[in-house]
Structures are given as structure tokens and as C-alpha cells.
Amino acid sequence: MTADPRTAPVLVPLPLPTDLDAPDAWLLHGMVDAVNDVLLDTWGTRDEARVAGEQLAALRDQEYVTRLRFVALDAPPEAGPPDPARVLGRAVLDLPRQDNTHTGSAGVEVRPAHRGRGIGAALHDLVIATARAHGRSTLTASSDHAAEPDAGPGTLAPSTGTGRVRADDRGVAFLAHRGWTLEQVVRRSVLDLPVDAPVLAGHAAAAARAAGPDYRVVRWEARCPDELVDQFAHLQTRMSTDAPKGGLDLREDVWDAARVRAAEQTYVDRGMPYRVAAALHQPTGDLVAYTSLVSRPDSDEFVFQDDTLVLREHRGHRLGMLVKTANLARLAEVQPGARRIGTWNAEENAHMLAINVALGFRPAGGSGEWQLRLG
Ligand SMILES: CC(C)(COP(=O)(O)OP(=O)(O)OC[C@H]1O[C@@H](n2cnc3c(N)ncnc32)[C@H](O)[C@@H]1OP(=O)(O)O)[C@@H](O)C(=O)NCCC(=O)NCCS
Fold first, then answer.
1. How far is the C-alpha of 99 from the C-alpha of 323, rounded, in Å?
2. Which contiguous run of DSSP H or E holds residue 203?
3. Is the CB of 38 under 6 A from ligand 1?
4. DSSP category for residue 79
5. How far is ligand 1, taken at its centre, from the CA of residue 110, in Å?
6. What is the pLDDT of residue 61?
7. Ligand 1 centroid vs 174 CA: distance in angstroms?
8. Helix (H/G/I), strand (E/B), else coil: 227
9. Which residues of the chain have pLDDT under 50?
10. Which of 7, 39, 166, 170 to mutate to test the pocket of ligand 1 (most atoms within 8 A of CB)?
């Protein structure tokens, strides 16, 4: 008896094509289309949509993280035309190679039109088996939601107690049924641009007054100045220890100058402008805070807020607001077509959320952050 393809998806590792026109590149195009279908279904916008060239460049960057991708098809690739629509879903497994080698970051996405026929379950099983084969003992995953529910029946709270997800959300139910535990809820917020210039200048001036003369803002685009790169690497290491992680078993992830340069090069390869504003503590010459914005390769309209960090020992001086306003002012100058910035912050990260709310960011859904112990 032939297997019913509707219940037996064919799962194949994504080949990394040499370029976007290579004979096997249709699988990458199909994977990106599938992810974009899921993003549109979840968020109702294409703001966070992926772009094939950018994804190919991101997947080539495997020095610090092994990036495995699997795609689900109805039949083996060679059994049909090279049509991206044949890709029904995909799984992600990112495996850190230097720190946090006990864990990995997983994801399963199925095109809305092909859900409910076992594709998600099959991709999930493959990811778990692969993570085990790589010796991982825990995994993390996210479930996205366009609106965070009010407290009440039918909601789940994470181990931090802050934030909620709907228990009947398909992604939530999918992970909960498979033994994952909800360890954190992250709020997504969007800032509509342009911010009124006098309002932004007012926040910047108030932050500069509170910070005082000991702190100076430095900004760069694409490449950190050589004299600051070791310190910038240290800040990125501290991002892994100082940002709230809820109940997720994530440990220190050490950065050095070479890794900073590799990450910068990947943004260049992805065609994504990368802008940093940082605070320098003048008495010591130390870099003590930073924030970064990353623009899309294909449109000016939407901008990703990347990391923001103020070292613990320099908190309470409004440095978060200082660097954020400096980067927003720069963005307004160099990318006047920007209309929205999206950011993600842990619900328990009250100080960061307060800065964003003061700047005018509005809640726009978020994610549940989940963990599975593989035993
Ligand atoms: C979650 C997701 C991957 C599931 O994909 P799928 O192919 O529909 O999954 P399956 O067909 O294997 O079914 C998964 C579960 O949904 C149930 N289901 C099937 N049809 C359903 C329907 N119409 N409505 C709700 N649940 C349904 C299945 O019974 C199964 O239940 P189980 O968890 O108890 O086993 C998919 O909804 C998706 O891509 N969501 C967005 C991304 C996401 O949230 N991913 C999960 C976190 S990484």
C-alpha cells in the first residue's frame, strides 16, 4: 500500500544553494514563502517578512551557531517540479557551537492552508531527534501571538508570573501537548515614526541632564570603531547574562572582537543597515551601554530594534533613554522613510518597557518562550 502523502510529509534538510538562481534554490524560496505565510497569518502585516537573499546570507553564517533547516514536502524534491509552493512548512534548529552547547533554539512553522494534517508533529519529532543526536539536553522555542490576553480562564502564565498567553492558541497547545514549559512571556511593541522631533529632543535632553557630564554618546554604522571593539564585545557578552531570561536555562555567551566583526559582516551580507548608539563613561573610558537598530534589505518602512543594554553598575542614570534617543535621532536623519520600529522585551523587564512606553511604543502582541528538557 502506498503511504497517503497527506499523512506522511517528506522531510528534507534544506540544501544551501550557491545562489538564488541555482537549480535547488526553489527549496529556499519555498521555505521563505512558507515562513512569510505564517508571519502574515500571525501578525496581519509583512513588517517582519523574510527575504530570500537575506536568509541565504544568514544561513551561511555558521561559525558560532550551526543553523539546521528542514522543509516539509508532499513528495521527494526530485519527484515534482521545482515549485516553491511545494514547501508546506519548515523546522529550525539553531545549535550554539561555543557556549550554551547544552541547548538549542527550535521552531516549527506550517503554512496555514496545510495545518492539522500532522506536518507540525512530524517536523517537531525530527527536531527533537536531531537535537538529541547533537547531545543537547534542553531546547527553547517561541509561540507568537498578535495580542496578549487579559488574565483569566483559558490563559497560561510563565514561571516568572508576568505576562500571559492563550491556552487555546495553536502554537501554545502544540508545545504544551509536547511537554514544553512556558518560562517567559515577551511583549512586542511598535513605535510609529516619525516621532515628533521636539518630543524626541525633550527626552534626549532630560536623559543627558540626568546622566551628567561623565557620559558621552558615541554612534556608528555597520562597523564598531577598532578602539571600542573589545569593549563592545564585552557588552554583548553581558547582554547574555544581564537581560532577563525568565526560567530559560541560558548561560553566558562570550563574545570577542572576532565575533563582533563576523556579526557585522553578516549584516552587510544580508543587506541590512546596522546602527549602534553607545554610552561611554568618560572617567574610565569604558563603554557601558548600547542600543542597535537593524533595517530591512528591501524597504525603509520597518526597522528592527535589536539589543539594548545598560551595564548593571551604570543603571539609574537614564542611559537607556540616552542611547535610544540618540539612535532614533540618527535614524530620522539617515532613513526618513522609516514608519515603524518593532521591539521585543521580556514582560518582567519593567525598566526597559518603561523607557519604550515613554517613547511612545504601543503593545503589539508578543511571544511565549518555552523550554523542553530532553532528559
Ligand atoms: C503549531 C503548528 C506548527 C502546528 O502545525 P500542524 O501541521 O497544524 O500540526 P499537526 O497537524 O501536527 O497538529 C498539531 C496539533 O494540532 C491539532 N489540530 C489539528 N487540526 C487542528 C485545528 N483545526 N485546530 C486546532 N488544532 C488542530 C492536532 O490534533 C495536534 O494536536 P496535538 O498537539 O494534541 O498532537 C502550526 O499551527 C503553526 O505553524 N503555527 C505557527 C508557528 C508556531 O506557533 N509554532 C509552534 C512553536 S515553534
1. 28
2. helix 197-211
3. yes
4. G
5. 8
6. 96
7. 5
8. helix
9. 1-5
10. 170
For residues 136 and 304, give the distance between their C-alpha atoms in angstroms, rounded to a whole number.
30
User: Domains in the chain and their CATH numbers?
Assistant: 1-136 (3.40.630.30), 194-338 (3.40.630.30)
Please give the full DSSP string across 230-259, using - where no structure is assigned. HHHHHHHHHHHHHS--TT---------HHH
Q: For residue 72, what are the β-bridge partners?
A: 11, 89
Q: What is residue 2's predicted lDDT score, i.e. its pLDDT? A: 41
CB distance 41 to ligand 1 below 6 Å: no
pLDDT for residue 375: 77
Concatenating the DSSP letter of every residue in 10-39 gives: EEEEPP--SSTTSTTHHHHHHHHHHHHHHH
**What pLDDT, on a 0 to 100 scale, did the predictor assign at position 3?**
40
Q: Is the CB of 372 under 6 A from ligand 1?
A: no
Q: Please, what sign has the CA dihedral across residues 244, 200, 279, 230?
A: positive
On whether the pTM is more than 0.90, the answer is yes
Ligand 1 centroid, distance to 115 Cα (angstroms): 6
Q: Is 141 in the pocket of ligand 1 (CB under 6 A)?
A: yes
Q: Do 51 and 20 meet the contact criterion of CB atoms below 8 Å apart? A: no
Query: Which residues have C-beta within 8 Å of that of residue 352, sequence separation ≥ 6?
Result: 308, 320, 345, 346
Q: How far apart are CA 319 and CA 200, in angstroms?
A: 15
What does the block give as the cell for 367?
Answer: 511571544
User: Which helix (H) or strand (E) is 58 found in, with range?
Assistant: helix 52-60
Q: What is the structure's pLDDT at 7?
A: 60
* Ligand 1 midpoint to CA 100 (Å): 29
Whether the CA torsion 278, 207, 186, 51 is positive or negative: it is negative
Does the C-beta of 177 come closer than 6 Å to ligand 1? yes
- The answer to whether 290 touches 308, Cβ cutoff 8 Å, is yes
Q: Which is the closest atom of ligand 1 to the Cα of 122?
A: 12
